[in-house]
Every structure is written in structure tokens, then in C-alpha cells.
Design goal:
alpha+beta, single chain, elongated
Amino acid sequence: MAAPRHDFATPRLPSLPRFLVVGVLLAAIAYAWAALPGPAPGPTQIPPKAPPKVAVPELDRALLATARDDERSQRLQIEEAPVRHLLAKALDVGPATAHALGMPDRPSDVRAVRADLAAHKGRWLWFVGELEDLSGPRSGHPVLGQSIFEATLRLADGERVLFCCTEPPAADVTPGTFVRAEGFLLKLVDRTYPSTRKCEHAPFLVGRALQRDWPAWGPVQALSPELFAGLDDSTAWPGDLASRTLEADQTPATWQLAAFARDAAANWPAARWAAAPLLTNEEHDRLRSGKVERGAPFRIQGTVVQRTTLAAPANPAGITTWTAVWLQVREYGGGVVVPVWLPHRLPDLPERAAVEVHGLWYRWLVYESIQDERRRTPLFVAAALVPRGSVGNDSPHAAWVWLPIGATVSLLAVAWARRRRVRADLAHATALDERRRRRAAAANRTDHAGNP
């Protein structure tokens, strides 16, 4: 008797070439979307030319080493040659150069300087205190036509600092006022006069100018409307408010807005920022109408295309470093760049980082693009940038693209796994059927051989 034969119906599944074509197509779409860097700014929309690298002055270390302060007799005298050398070098030091020289973010501590004097000599340091003595001008400057001014500062902890500079002090810089001294540290000095003022192992700095300073404001929790009432950014002639860069716009209004962003707005609840308008084309007309108050909150989503860090001049807000960031905002003007000023040094970010900024509206800024075209853009002040992931995922519609791609890939993976399982089961069943048929055939041959 012949063994029964089992017929297995082969399921109708997509062929392997179809899977490969669909998979490759989806992979190409996903790769193209991930690699897409976002719309590049047009030729008139990119930010101003990046500033050139700052050249720092080279100091003659051998000459500076001739200024000795190991003994009191050496500290009672000041060597003229190294002072003249530093006076000439300090003339070329501005905020950007000071930052490149590694000027610390906070005023130096006299005790810390004494404890590690070798590491501080020749460095660009700064101190803040009350102006006790001011003398000059006197001759002896290495640059023709320049004079020398000398000052003594009394710090809050009672320590004293001696300062030598080139530029005449401003009219409001008089004994008893709050001042700031920036310069190269030459040595420690002693003074025996006047006898009522103890001055021993005092740092001696050589700089460019003595700056007017102010006592610290403390945390700023509210804005003063009077500081912003007279701001006029409607014109853009050279020197007008709208043409001022961060370095030029160091005013009480700028300081207070930055301090308010740092001390108050940065601590607002997330719900308050979520309710703030997003900078888009629709908000442009509202900004241009002049009805938006200075300091109004905005959310700005964009890509970092340029940033610049500079040392802050003297200010009562306690700001020691500024960072100017240019963002490419695709929802605003098709990629118009928007400047944001931050009152601190920004941590390192990957190239073309996608960020969201919780900013406060300040004013309009006019700049010249790399094509030498004047452009007008809104300027904001903020306390921080919040990373938003890679540039490829920066689009608000990215999820609607990735969701179907991910779902399709997942379904293909499940279908392919099922197809392999069905084929394996089918091959196993076919092998069993073939083995049964061979056994049945062998049994039939044996039966016929034994029963002729």
C-alpha cells in the first residue's frame, strides 16, 4: 500500500528582488533626509564676515625678567626699561586681544597672585577697586607724543594695586570713584608713602587706560523702562544705535537687559516660555510696528552659523564675557540670520548646531553681509542656547517623514522574518514527505520480491 502523499501549498510571498528594491529606496530616502543640512543662506543672508584672528603682542621675557622683587630693596624701585616695553605693547590690547591673551573672567585675587607669582608675571590681569591716588601726565613714554599716568587702587579686601597706563583718564575718573585696571603684571612693589597707607607686595600692572567702573548691581529681577524709553533704532547711519555692534553697544540698557535675562528670565517656568511667540514671518510685522516692548520674550529656533566671544568692559552687571551668536532661522525670512547676545562665554557646540533660544527682544541691528549689502534684522539678548539635536532633524515636520519610513522598514523586517520562517518550515515539511515516500517505495519493492 502506498504511503499517502502530502501536498503543501506554497504561500504567495513577495520575491526577494522586490524586498531589495523597496529597502534600498527607503534607505536612500532616509540617508538623504539625514544628510540634508537645511536650506543654505542666500548670498545676501549670511552674517557679516568673520573677524580675523587676533594677533597678540609678543613680550620680551628676558627684559621682563630684569624686574626683580625678591627683596624689599628691589620692590622699592621700578625698572624703567620693562615698564616702557609693556606700555608700548599694551597700546595694542583691546577687548578682543585681552580675551586672546587669556584674561580671567573674574578679577584677580592679590593673595592668589602672590602665592603663584611666577605663573602670573607677564599675564594680562585686572582688578576693581576705589581710586586712591592719580598722577600724571609725565614724560618717559616709549611712543612719541604719549604720556604716562599712574594710579593706586584700594580693593574691597583692603589690598592695594599700582597701575601705570598711557591714555588720560576720563573726566569722571577722580580719586574716590570706582575704577578698573587692566594690564600686564610686571612685579610686586612696596611703597613707603604716605605712611598712613600700607602698601607692601602690591601687584604692579602696566596697561592702556584706567576705566570707570561701578559697584555691582546684584541680581536684576525687573527692567527699568526709563533705560529703554529713548532708544532709537529707526536710523542706520554709522554710529547710530542700529549700526552698533556688541562691542560698541556697552550701555546701561544693554547691561540691564542681559542681567535680567541671566538672573530672572532664565528661571522662568517652561510653561511661560512655551507661551512666548516663535520668531516667524508672521511676527516680523508685529516687530516692525514698534508695538513690541523692549524685553518681550521670544523663542528663536535656528542653526548656529557664526559666533564671536569678547571680553566685557567694566559694567555694574557683573558681566565679564560676551558671546555674539548668529542663527540661521528657516521659519523667518527663508533663512535670514538673527543675532543673539549672551552675557557669558558660550560652551563649545558642534558645527551648525540646531538650537532653541529663549530670548528677550532688544532692538533692530543693521549689518553688512559678505556681499557688502546692508541688512536689517531683529536682535535678541538671552541667557542660554538649548541644543535641539542634529541639523537633519531640525525641521518641525521631520517626525512626519521619519514615522512612515520607520513603520515601513519595521513591516518589511517582520515580513522578511516571517517569509524566512515559512520557507524553512516548508523545506522541512518537504524533506519529511520525501523521506516518507522513499520509505514507502522501499517497502513496496520488498513486498513484491517476497510475494511473486
